[in-house]
């Protein structure tokens, strides 16, 4: 699905009104009802206690008024507080009139109402229309709620948070425990710098125009199973190991053979037909014992890779896990960049060699896949002022080098040579453990070896990698998750994405 800008979100609302021939008040009722149903599914009236709804003068405040009415009708104790304003939106006024007299409503003043720790607060002060930092009484209210340590649930956006631009330093922003957005996530939800404001985010469907959502222009996407439908074909009945490609991994050095082994196991579990692993001589026994399905091609050097093998047999190559940064290994990387004719995945120490030797970047074959974590990316593309600037650096880097770059994180972001950004939806904090990146390298190399288009292979790989983590965590818990657990769930994760037989 596409990630819309704040302006496009408003356009989606208008397109829905025209297409479905409904009023804006009816759409507001639908949205607030979806929010309220979400809340009631998680908090009974007894658990919620008194619900405090803080409303601004616009349509976000109107959503809050509808939610207050619906909660009251469902038996919740509700109080409403409204920011004073010279004018209120039409839909706000309509829903203020519809609020039952039994629901207390007060206009906020500088003498702010007490909010106890743990109180359930609905933030409906401001939505996506905010374009500058909150000031005056609005800023006071936000600070008051944050300091109260209330259980804040934000409708659509935490008040004061910009949907698709960085915050001004020290700008007052609601710190929500949960944010419930309509239909689609906002870019702001996906960036680390906003985590303390957004909390856990959720989306609820409200029937926005499908035609608008699918046709909206933009370069940002949220990767889910729907977006990936049809990209991973079912394996052929009469397929054989040659059908699914022959991958080469150049990985490992003394003390870091585990990285090579994890990448190899992931590659094998991701459907490759044949796998050869080039390791230093010290890795031979380890590889043959722990990954007997892979062919071991040992280097003459005992502790690191010093020579590039013949590349003729291979349909994709991965390099980097546990590689080390010896001078001879740098020369191997340089020769590989000059000679390879097949898709290339570059990770870990291979990325560090690129950043330490920028001239090598000019040798990157088109459509290479790089998989840096943020620090590795910083060494490649320079430091970022904030998370939004990092995305601009990512776009520029991918365009300049005509490569795909997988910027790893909670919402791993794939940048493409065309400047598109794809944010992954799968994965969990348990994957923040050594070796997870090596598993991703093996997965991507396997999918590219199967001759899938680079964009398809990379999107499938990052999604399946995260999904494997989610499946594994159901058994291990997040704290107990190891990188090796991911390899065992790659097969089920990819099976979920396989295109079924058509009738």
How would you explain this protein's 3D organization?
- (6S)-NADPHX binds at residues 59-63, 127-133, 156, 259, 322, 373, 438.
- AMP binds at residues 408-412, 437.
- With 503 residues, this protein is an alpha/beta fold.
- Helices cover 40% and strands 15% of the residues.
- The strands form two sheets. The protein has a ten-stranded mixed β-sheet with strand order 8-17-16-15-14-13-12-9-10-11, sandwiched between helices.
- The relative contact order is 0.10.
Strand order of the largest sheet: 8-17-16-15-14-13-12-9-10-11
Helix content range:
40-55%
Main sheet attributes: strand count, strand direction, barrel closure = 10 strands, mixed
CATH superfamily of the largest domain: Ribokinase
Distance between the termini: 27 Å
Strand portion, in percent? Answer: 5-15%
Rg of Cα set: 26 Å
Give the overall pLDDT as a whole number: 96
Write down how many β-strands occur, each being a DSSP E stretch of 2 or more residues.
17
Broad structural category: alpha/beta
